[in-house]
Structure formats: structure tokens, C-alpha cells
Amino acid sequence: EVQLVESGGGLVQAGGSLRLSCTVPGVNFIDYAIGWFRQTPEKGREGVSCISNSDDNTYSADSVKGRFTISSDKANNTVYLQMNSLKPEDTAVYYCNALYFGVENWGQGTQVTVSS
Q1: CB under 8 Å to 92, separation ≥6 — which residues?
Q2: N or C, which terminus of the chain has less Cβ within 10 Å?
Q3: Could you tell me whether strands 18-23 and 33-40 are parallel, antiparallel, or unpaired per DSSP bridges?
Q4: Phi, psi at 33, each rounded to 5°
Q5: CB neighbour list of residue 69: distance below 8 Å, 6 or more residues apart
Q6: What is the pLDDT at residue 34?
């Protein structure tokens, strides 16, 4: 079973920054696409950003473009989500998703709370 280890959530004031990390140990990382999703009771689950480790293509939702940056450290099987200029509406549980040839695995989630 593929395990995803997330870290980096917390409480921050509006305008602040956080960096989330998602480590996937013991796999051939280049075969995976890694995505970040977030979930709230009001909005449900929303795709935030993703990166393909095979070609480094990235995607980010319009709501976070220009503020969030996804990057991959293939040497350490870790993907980072750098979140800047955070807004209260970014408050959510953030989940890491690892996609391998159609098979998905999810992290345990990390809470991000942005106070106004």
C-alpha cells in the first residue's frame, strides 16, 4: 500500500504563507502525478494544484493562480505546495493525492486555517 505523509498545515493570518509537503516513500516517484485538493463542508472537495513528475507539467485552479506554487523534489519523493497571500477562503483541510496509472492514494489531510 502506498502511504502519503503530509505536513505543514496550521493557523496563519490573512496575507501570510504556509508550505505544505507530501512525501511518498518507497515508490518510483517519477511514475506519479501528485495533486493537492482541499475540502470544506460548504464547498466540498476542490482541486487546487497538481504536478506530473514525468514531465513536470503543472496545473493550478484559477482561485489560487499567482498565489500557490507546486513543486517536486524527486530526490526526496516530496511535493511541496507553497501558499502565499493566503485568504480566509483558503481555509480547508488539504489532502495530497498520488495518481499512478489510474490508481489513487490519499493522504490523511492537514488543516489550514486563515484568520481575517
Answers
A1: 38, 39, 40, 43, 46, 111, 112
A2: N
A3: unpaired
A4: -105, 135
A5: 81, 82, 84
A6: 98
Query: Rounded CA gap, 32 and 51, in Å?
Result: 9
Show pLDDT as tens, one digit a residue, over the chain (116 residues): 899 999 999 999 999 999 999 999 999 999 999 999 999 999 999 999 999 999 999 999 999 999 999 999 999 999 999 999 999 999 999 999 999 999 999 999 999 999 99
CA atoms of 38 and 86, how far apart (whole Å): 14
pLDDT at 73: 97
**Where do we find the cell 484568520?**
115
Q: According to the model, what pLDDT value does residue 1 have?
A: 84
Q: Which residue has the cell 482561485?
A: 63
The residue type at 97: N
